[in-house]
Amino acid sequence: MQTTRGRSAMCVCHSSLLRVALISCFALILAGWVEGQASDYLRPEWQVGQEQVSPEDLSVIVPAPAPDVLSLQDAVLLALEQNLGFRQTLQSLLAAQSNWYVAQQRWSLAAFAGVQRTGNDETVDERHAGAAFSYAATTGADFSVVAELTRLDSEDTQSAISALLQQPLLAGRGDASAAYEEVRRARDTYRAELLLFFIDRQSLIRQIVGAYSDVVEQEQLVAIQEASVDRRKQSVEDARLRLEAGLIPEIELRRAQLRLSSEEAFAIAQKQGLRDAMDRLLLLLGLEVGGMPDLVTPVPYDPQSLDVAGLTTQALESRPDLLLADIAIEDAEAGLRISRSERLPSLDLFGGWWEQRNGIEERSWNVGLDLSVPIGSRSLTEAVNQARWDLLVSQQARETLVQQVVADVRAEARAAEAARANIDIAESSVELAERSIEIAQRMVEEGLGTNRDLLDAQDDLRQSQRSLVSSQIRYYLALVRLRVALGLDLLPVVSSDQAPTTSPDAGETDPEATG
Questions:
Q1: Which of 229, 294, 341, 452 lies most in the core, judged by the most C-beta atoms within 10 Å?
Q2: Is 117 inside any structural domain?
Q3: Of 416, 419, 406, the residue nearest 481 (C-alpha)
Q4: Between the CA of residue 64 and those of 67, 82, 205, 286, 290, what are the distances in Å?
């Protein structure tokens, strides 16, 4: 008898679980279709050069000693791997990606089991097991199936299966539903993090380029200053010889010695500035501070003509912060859509089906409509007003950002043009200063001029050389900032020795070679 009951219970269990499986498969098919529609989240215009990011990129790296030789490309790659600030950007992107994956899964499936003993006049042992499936569709529908098998004292067996469905028809349906909003928000958060990843990477590369160029500039200024010290030493020696020959008064020698002391003190400060600049660069790269690698990437100078009107149009099409502003507008539009939906009457279609067996099979079902109408709810009306204001502010913020983009492009273009003009002036000044030194040297030797004329000519040469180096660095950095202002990727530029240009594909290299 017990064997017959056991077989019957197993048949009932298998039948119930089979029904749960069939209903769940149908719901999963529906879920897969909805997720397939939602997975088209990244249009081509959102793709602005992001790299593939994986959790392995966040592995802990102990700062390594500085290498003996360091190129600009190596410096950028090191910073992208080790810079702490950029690692936080990677973490935010991975978290947003994870949340997007979670939001896409609209269903859940769980199995449960339990044992309990209750006692009153007699003791009863109860064992139960079952499965539950639920699915929240982006249309606003909620669907759930629960199947459970209960056995009492190993003789009495009960089984139950239920299915419930609820679909909003007015408020909370479609793109105003909580499920749709959850998916949309996770999708747009991921979009925003992809753009912020690109923006932060641009910012880091720009910092590295600036720090690297600063070290290169300091090295050149140190070389100029050391050459100036050598010229001062030669001037002191020449003045001493002329004083011994009675050709000049002693004041000329003292004046040359004072100029030499000043140049030597300035050389010490210049070398200190070089070490400080190198330490700042190594700190950005995540390397041990204190090294002095040999920087092998020169700062190129490639004069370019700039079409400000064309560059402005290009920036308005490719700036990632404008895409972020579009996401903010989309969020505000979603808020307005939801607040308007909440002000509508709530009309829900619901249905259910139950089956229970305990020796006797019982079945029941229901279907109907549930209506709820908000009356005199000022909070719902004000929520719509506030959402509309948020949308207007977001739209105005984008219009203001457009003007900021135009201003950025114009400012960087002017900075580049000014630096280029200063380079031309400095090159002419260097030639004139070199010629002035030759003339002053010959006049001193012929007794037609004083030693002060030669010292002044040497000062002019040093200043002109320093101005030329600084102007060339400023022009290079202005082109880098201009490329950032245009929304163009900096990574291909620093992966080559070419000067940054305003062409989208300028400096492009093999993607596999640049990681």
A1: 341
A2: yes
A3: 416
A4: 9, 10, 20, 8, 11
Handedness of CA 213, 216, 220, 221 (dihedral sign): positive
Task: Tokens for 378, please give them.
Answer: 């000022």
> Residue 114 has which token pair?
């339990």
71 vs 230: CA distance, rounded Å: 30
Does residue 144 sit within a domain? yes
Residue 302, judged by CB atoms within 10 A of its CB (0-12, 13-18, 19+), counts as exposed
**Confidence category of residue 101, pLDDT binned at 50, 70, 90:** confident
Mean pLDDT along residues 57-75: 87
Q: How far is CA 364 from the centre of its chain?
A: 56
Q: Are 62 and 287 in contact (CB under 8 A)?
A: no
Are the beta carbons of 475 and 419 closer than 8 angstroms?
yes
Q: Which amino acid is at 42?
A: L
Q: Which secondary structure element, helix H or strand E, spans residue 364, and what is its range?
A: strand 361-372
- Name the DSSP class of 450: -
Domain count of the fold of the chain = 1
Residue 212 lies in a domain: no
What amino acid occupies position 151?
R
- pLDDT greater than 90 at residue 408: yes
**pTM, whole model, 2 decimals?**
0.80
Res 327: pLDDT: 92
Residue 7 lies in a domain: yes
**3-state secondary structure (DSSP) of residue 480:** helix
CB atoms near residue 473 (< 10 Å): 21
The angle formed by the CA atoms of residues 442, 444 and 447, to the nearest 5 degrees, is: 110
Q: What is the pLDDT of residue 48?
A: 57
- Token pair, residue 108, equals 């859940």
Residue that has been written with the tokens 């097991």 in this structure:
129
Residue with tokens 């002109």: 464
Tell the residue number behind the tokens 């007794």, with chain if given. Answer: 447
Distances (CA, A) of 309 to 409, 417, 480: 9, 15, 18
Helices of type H across 245-376: 250-285, 308-318, 320-342
> What is the b/e burial string over 164-182, where b = at least 16 CB atoms within 10 angstroms of the residue's CB?
bbebbbebbbeebbebbbb
CA 227 to CA 211: how far, in whole Å?
A: 24
DSSP codes, 110-132: EEEEEEEEEESSSEEEEEEEEEE
What whole-number distance in Å separates Cα of residue 72 and Cα of residue 496?
9
**In this predicted structure, what is the pLDDT of residue 515?**
32
DSSP 510: -
Report pLDDT for 12: 45
Structural domain for 19, as ranges: 1-40+112-137+139-172
Each residue of 279-291: pLDDT tens digit? 999 999 988 998 9
What lies within 8 Å, CB to CB, of 440 at 6+ separation is 449, 453, 454, 456, 457
1: pLDDT strictly greater than 60: no
Say if strands 107-119 and 123-136 run parallel, antiparallel, or are unpaired.
Answer: antiparallel
71: three-class secondary structure by DSSP: coil
Per-residue pLDDT, averaged over 451-474, amounts to: 87
